[in-house]
Design goal:
The protein has a single domain, classed as VTC, catalytic tunnel domain (mRNA Triphosphatase Cet1, Chain A, Alpha-Beta Barrel), CATH 3.20.100.30. It has six helices and ten strands; from the N terminus they run E-E-H-E-E-H-E-E-E-H-E-E-E-H-H-H. The two termini are 27 Å apart. InterPro entries: VTC_domain (IPR018966), VTC_sf (IPR042267). This is VTC domain protein. Pfam families: VTC.
Amino acid sequence: MEPISLADMDSHALMNRVDTKYVLGIAHLPELLESVGYSYRVLCVESVRLSPYSTLYFDTPDHECYRQHHNGKLNRLKFRIRQYQSSGACFLEVKAKNNKGRTKKQRIAIDRFEESLSASSRGFIEAVTGYFPELIPQLWSSFSRITLVNRNQPERVTLDLDLAFSDGDTRRSLPNIIIAEVKQELDERRSPMRQHLHRLHILQMRVSKYCLGMILLKPHLKCNLFKAKLHAIRKIA
């Protein structure tokens, strides 16, 4: 596939967007890339097209972010530090999901992972949210990502594979699945990726990597509303 550089992708950042997610088996990847290759360019950072990512998620001691997602709260937040290992860039990010189904991401560059948030990081979170919740590290995640950029419309597609989660003591991995996310300015079903996934009979699935990791590592958490989804993911794997 024709490459696109990190600098050229800046105009496709889509920090305020509509997300559509899918879970599929790793065996679909070669056919998927071949079928949509003419419609997308692939992000290439220093010759690397399969980029490793590391993420540290923060939540309150009573897991408020997790509980809000589990209980279907429409306006909710997630807090994380993510490192893009191919470039070395590291960001503190606040993701907000609103009741219109839109995702807005705000972030600042930081030097490194902070297990104890610095004063400037706390100030950024307070500036974005209007308050500062008590946040502690809850979950590490890692995965490798292929990023595709649509040639003709404002759309990016991320394909995350080799997912692994850790809470410091225990590690769980999902090596046989891909979480695909189509990120668009507007909900456009004529996306080549969405159309091809539909032809493969792969249905949309709202899935959060944070919540998925939490239920795999912390079985004491309430997860009744996620059980059917977790069963479907395990069946795909």
